[in-house]
Prior knowledge:
The complex is a heterodimer of chains A (261) and B (203).
Chain A: H1 8-15, H2 21-33, H3 35-56, H4 65-70, H5 78-96, H6 101-110, H7 113-129, E1 138-139, H8 143-154, E2 169-177, E3 182-189, E4 195-202, E5 213-217, E6 220-227, E7 230-236, H9 240-255
Antiparallel strand pairs in A: 1-2, 2-3, 3-4, 4-7, 5-6, 6-7
Chain B: H1 10-17, H2 32-49, H3 52-68, H4 79-101, E1 120-122, H5 129-140, H6 143-153, H7 159-166, H8 170-189, E2 200-202
Parallel strand pairs in B: 1-2
Helix pairs in contact in B: 2-3, 2-4, 3-4, 4-7, 5-8, 6-8, 7-8
Amino acid sequence: MSKPPISDDEVHAWADRQLPPDRRAAFEQAMAREPALAAKAAEIERQNAWLRDGLDELLHEPLPPRLVDAARVPPARRSWRWLATAAVSAASLLVGLGGGWYLRDAALELAGTPTTFAQEAAFTHALYAGDVNRPVEVWAPEEKRLVAWLSKRLDYPLRAPDLNSAGYALVGGRLVAGNERPTALFMYENAAKQRLTLQARKQAPGTDETAFRYSVEDGIGVYYWVDDQCAYALSGSLDRAQLLRIGRLVYAQLSSPEAPK
Amino acid sequence: MLQAVNGAFAPAAEARHAGILVMSVDAPLPHPDLLAAIPRLRRYARVLTGDATRADDLVQETLARGWEKRRLWAAGTDLRAWLFTIMHNVFVNQRAVAMRDAQNVSLDGDGEGGAAWQVPVRAPQQAHVELLEVFREMSRLPPEQREVLVLAAVEEMRYEEIAAVLSIPVGTVMSRLSRARARLRRSVSDAGSDPVTPLKIVR
């Protein structure tokens, strides 16, 4: 049976590494038969290499501050932040007068920094949980390697909690660039293909534990807490009660001294 | 006692121990995924505009729109491709406005706009005459062909992705790509015909 002839589009697709595998053999045979075809394909590959080489330098230019600023998470509510800034200033003034730290801590809390962690967690959740084909870098069958790798990168002994009792199986995990510190991400999925992510990052020494806090960012619920120098965020499109139930399960497993299993 | 959960406040916590006052709320930190996308957005903007300042303006506008429109971003799709799509649309709109404002200045004409297009090209040690020729010819390509060429050859996007970014059919992607490459091929074969070059050679 004769194969369809080589089209011009296929010459481009071959040089761009986009020719479907079932046509590659036919294409390479045709190149061996027709020197003109081989020369054309090689010419395109050469052009590609020149273009990449020539433009590569642009990727390594330092970023101008205004573009770094443009990538900052804009404050969710202006008025709220303004209030927070005023509160911090007021609290600092109190401190200046010999007042207590308590107010200042309350002001810092009001300043919404924890929300930034939740916002980031929600954004990262949306980015990877929605990825059908490649939500994780290392898949669940290699859980041991995954946990070892992430623990090493965070410099903190991590564990992937077992959420099977809640109907969620581990999909795998990945390393995510966080604020100043790397963040580990574990992803879980239930039978209905709903996904949850647990993100963890190491905190500065001296950070106290916190109770569960909850926020909704762009429709994604996030529970977050700090436990033993590590901050956690559990994110998913679940209602608050369900997410809290799973959050407690995660918390209980991570705070038990021995790894379950 | 309540504590800030975010690593961003670690300096504040240290400052407290040192007895130093922190007077203002820190600016929010850059989003890591957006930050990671900037170098490629800048490079593509540079190719689109052919001008460093205009390129950065374009990237800034793209990031701002990306935030505004983040609810429209379809989870599960490639963030980079989505940002490239926004950038393409911003660029096309800006060009339309510029053309309306200056009707007798062709920004889009075949070969006419090349003079304004400047991209720094790294010329390797044994300066490839061909590489310089390829870029010289690229400066003369119609922008529509240039963007398809760069997305395919440099960004290594799949043809379907390019079609989505530019809102054109895949067949149009292929015909533009074919025309762009034919022109580059011709230019290399009769190299050295034009002494005027908009190229700025870096090193």
